[in-house]
Amino acid sequence: MTLFSSFSSYSANFQTIAGLYFHTTQTFYFENTIFECFEPSLMAKEIKKIGVLTSGGDAPGMNAAVRAVVRASIYYGIEVYGIYRGYDGLINDKMEELHVRSVSNILSRGGTFLLSARSEAFRTKEGRAKAYENFKARELDALVVIGGDGSFTGADIFSQEYDVPVIGIPGTIDNDLAGTDYTIGFDTACNTAREAIDKIRDTASSHDRLFFIEVMGRDAGFIAVNSAIGGGAVAMIVPEHNWSIDQLIKRLRKGAANQKASNVVIIAEGCKLGNAYDVAAKVKEQLDYFDIRVTVLGHLQRGGSPTTMDRVLASRLGVAAVEGLRDGQSKVMVGVINNRITYTPIGEAIKTVKRLDDDEFRIAKILSI
Ligand code: ATP
Where do the Phosphofructokinase domain residues begin and end (predicted)? Predict the structure, then answer.
């Protein structure tokens, strides 16, 4: 694991707690939030058949997670059904049994072979009732949902309405879920963005240009921060912070005074100052001597073969999801904190806001001179 941890200051607590997790009921602290972790019920119903789906925005590594769920299930003698197009597949009964060889050669592929969807029907009571009819008719005992916070909100509601065991696997490039240091797809997205930044820097430094590069992140700046530090950006602007144009101008002027040859500014798409074009126009008004260009990376960041880190993370989480269900876990999201598998109540994972690490901004500022 080489990416910057937002939770490093909590490592001592987590290591102790993760080690004791399966033996006792625990209360632990996470970014000022208390999570209650309960010992799995010894009376839990035996899991013989499960369904797995991918939902919301696709993320590189989702295939690796499905593969791990399928193979771990079969390893433990559990039948596993792949549900196509997220919750829509559950509502429309689009599912089929998956076997060991059904998931051959998908480890290295981006996207999701189960396909994904944003299902409006699942947001309705009627839609979820249809989904439950099919769940029962297929004699499924539990559901594994791979997706982001929206998908987990749906899973939480479904599980409460019909007392269905569900377990979530965090699959989103945004890394905006509490209860895990990293989500599946985040590392690949950061590497894709950083690779693009490296290439843009080559041309920026050949022409003394100032580039504004917009990366994904409507509500969270994790991709922006990591790709900016990795790509040596002079500044990064994220949705969580209230950076002003004046602060940015000050930073750019300082660099110019220090003979900085090329400047790259990373902007998360949801930043409060506007999109990359808006920010570039505002900077141009005050620093007309800069030759300014804008690049929006867009969906490029969602695609591509998952990095080793994402494949390993997805494999660990997929196996842990199946093992969690076998142990009676339900309504939890499986994650990795300080390199240990953890199960966080799904409601807490959704509700808790995962914060950026302020120290990364301090580091970026020091290195931008
Ligand atoms: P990403 O983080 O990549 O956007 P996501 O899982 O957050 O992924 P969403 O589009 O927010 O993506 O949610 C995926 C699906 O989850 C929705 O299309 C819907 O089917 C279901 N869902 C989201 N919120 C709810 C809700 N309140 N009730 C029922 N279902 C929901």
Answer: 49-324
Q: What is the pLDDT of residues 108-138, one digit of tens each?
A: 999 999 999 999 999 999 999 999 999 999 9
Cβ(186) to ligand 1 under 6 A? no
Structure tokens at 66: 């499905």
As a whole number of angstroms, the distance between CA 340 and CA 19 comes to: 8
159 lines ligand 1 (CB under 6 A): no
Amino acid letter, 88: D
Give the torsion sign (CA, 147, 150, 151, 153): positive
| Measured distance CA(297)–CA(269) in Å, rounded | 10
Ligand 1 contact, 56 CB (< 6 A): yes
DSSP H helices in the chain: 11-20, 62-75, 86-91, 125-137, 149-162, 186-206, 222-231, 245-257, 276-286, 308-326, 346-351, 358-367
For a pocket test of ligand 1, which of 122, 151, 173 has the largest count of ligand atoms closer than 8 A to its C-beta? 151
Cα–Cα distance between 273 and 159 in angstroms, integer? 39
Partner residues linked to 120 by β-bridges: none
Which one, of 117, 116, 124, lies nearest residue 157 by Cα?
124
Q: Which helix (H) or strand (E) holds 202?
A: helix 186-206
Q: 261: which strand partners?
A: none
Ordered by where they begin, the domains of the chain are: 3-40 (no CATH), 49-185+306-351 (3.40.50.450), 187-303 (3.40.50.460)
Ligand 1 and 57: CB distance under 6 A: yes
- Per-residue pLDDT tens digits for 274-305: 999 999 999 999 988 788 999 999 999 999 99
Instruction: Spell out the residues 6+ positions from residue 202 whose beta carbon is closer than 8 angstroms to its own.
Output: none
